[in-house]
Each structure stands twice: as C-alpha cells, then as structure tokens.
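From the pipeline queue, job 12 of 40. The input is one protein chain; the requested action is below.

Action: predict structure.
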Amino acid sequence: MLLIKNALVYTMEPNDTPEKRDILVQDGVISAIGANLSAPDGTQVIDASGMVATPGLVDAHTHAGGFDSSSPDLNEKTDPVTAQLNAIDGIDISSEDFKDIHVHGVTASCFVPGSANVVCGTGFVAKTAGKNTLEELVVKHPAVMKCALGGNPKGCYGKKGQAPMTRMGIAEIFREALRKAKDYMEKKEAAGNDPEKLPPYDAKCEALIPVLKKEIPLKVHCEQFDMLTTIQIAKEFGCNYTIEHGWACDLYADELVEGGGTICFGPIGIPEGYGELTGGDVACVRELDERGLNICLITDGPICSSETLLISAGEAVRYGIPHMRALRMVTINAAKALQVDDRIGSLAPGKDADIALWSAIPALETRAKVLYTIINGEIVYQKS
C-alpha cells in the first residue's frame, strides 16, 4: 500500500477543484482520495506537503523506443498499405528515449508506427515503466490504426516513381484499403460458421476490421486541408478518427467541430516553412477547445522529448487557454482520445494509481519539476 499525504490534488475529474488531500493506493489502484486518510502499519507514506499531485501525463502519439535514427523500426517503407503491421513488434523498452519518458511525469503513451505509408499499422497504449517486458506494460492493444496523408507518403513513394505521388493518389489508396476491408468483413459475416464460404485470409483486411466496427479509431497524420480529406473518408466508411499533428487546424474550425474527432496537436515548435510546416503554435487549438472538441497535445517522440508534453501545456496557457483546460490536454483528454479513460487520465477510486508529484503547479508555474512518478502504485522515479 501507498499513502500520499497533504498534496494539492488535481484529480482532473469533471467539476472537481484542486484541494489539499491524501491519496490512498492499494493493489495498484486508487482506493480513496480525501482528507486525513489513514492506512495500516507498514504502509509506505509520502509526505507531499508543498507538492502538487496530478494524474500521470498521457502522450497520445509517440514513436519512442522504435525510431532510432540509424534504423527506424517503426517505419516500413516498402508498401503504401501495411495495416497488418504492429508497432508493438518494433519497440525496444531498453532504449534511452523510452527509459526517459517516465522521468518527466508521463506514465502512459500511445506508441505508433511511422508515417511513410498511407496505412502504417496498429499502435498500442502502454505504461512507460514499472515492468520488465513490453507485454506487461500494455494497457490496450490494438488501440489505433495509424495512417498518413500529405507529404510523408508522397515523399516516400513519389521519389521512387510509385503511387502515391499525389494527394489524389493517397486518398484513393486510403479508400481502396477500407473498401477491400469492408467487403472482406461482409463476406466473413455472411459466411457465418461455414468455412467453405469464408474469403481467403487477408491480414491487412483483418487488421482494418476493428476500425470499421469502431473498436479503434483511424489515427491520421495530417495537416492543413488534408484534415478535410480525413473527415470525409471517415464519414464515408463510418469510422472514428483522430487528427494527428493538426497544424493550422484553426483554419478548418467549423468542419473539425462538425466532424467530432479528437485533435492530437503537436509537437509545438516546428520550423515554420511552407505548406504543411505552418500553423504550429498551440494557439491554433484555442477556439476548437472552446467549442467543445476534444484536444490533446503530443510529443511525436523522439522527434521531441517527453518533457515537451508539459512544455506544450504551458505554452497553451501562455496563449490564453485556461490552465485547467490545458492540463486536461495532457491527461484526461488524451486518455479519452485513446479510449482508456476508464483506467488512466484522472485520479479517482478504482482507477490505476498513475500519479505525478510536482514541486509546483505544472503547466502554470515554470519552476514545476517532477519529484515522483508513480505507476500502478509503484514509485518508478524519485528526484534525487
């Protein structure tokens, strides 16, 4: 058991306000939050007087552990459609960029394949420390189907003289993959228990069935007007979706609000250039957040380090987004985008005991540093 005493607690639960409280943890989950909690003899106690407790941060988009610059194991550049691939097969939890994540208060991340292909493969949600194997860290797998529009697939295949060379080609390859999967799924359903009527096994189509059944979302790398293409294709096939990166999303506010998908914005600090490389200021999400769209912030690690997640939330505050709403963007909003908010993203009895203890109010006070990172009730980092 673990008892955290006298912290200023930000639960991120609806309508809850920060108060000085205790948090009691048992068997890896939160058992109680309140004042003057007690625990049996032998319970580990952290005196958190002067500290701030929040849910562990959630990064909804990272490649950490699989994007070594010399050999990126999460970017299979051989086929525009690789839906059958799994990011879980390309992550090395012993890599330095993976081991660095939890040090910055990030307790869960969504690990996704890279964006060279139109359909890249499935991603998964996992805790960032505390176990010896990746499988033990997994929260949800599969969690998303990573896809990409725009410059990345064009740049990968166009220079080879292969499709897709244009945005038209990307959109058609995307649609064709979903059409094939839909037809395959319908044939399987029609076959019932008759093996003679089943279509030949197709690994790509099998991987896309959870998307068509709305069990996992399309997680689409796109910026600028490619966001409109994503909305349209998701509508055509009845899929849930999230917009990844979403630079310049403020230019398409009405369409994005009507579409209803999450914006996973970032990373911030992109080198402003032209076309896709514009609109990287987090101020772009302010109106969308005000209008009720689910917004979360991402690192795209190791493109940006895991500490960028908190910096992004701080930048949101600097651009006029209320502090509590900015903090939601790196906690509960991200958990909702990944459909794991029943376990992580806020502090409440019954939820996983993933907790960050800070020296000051994170995303509001620049001096805030992580003092403890706790995952499943275990201290996985303590500032020396």
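Job complete. Residues 167-191 form the longest helix (25 residues).
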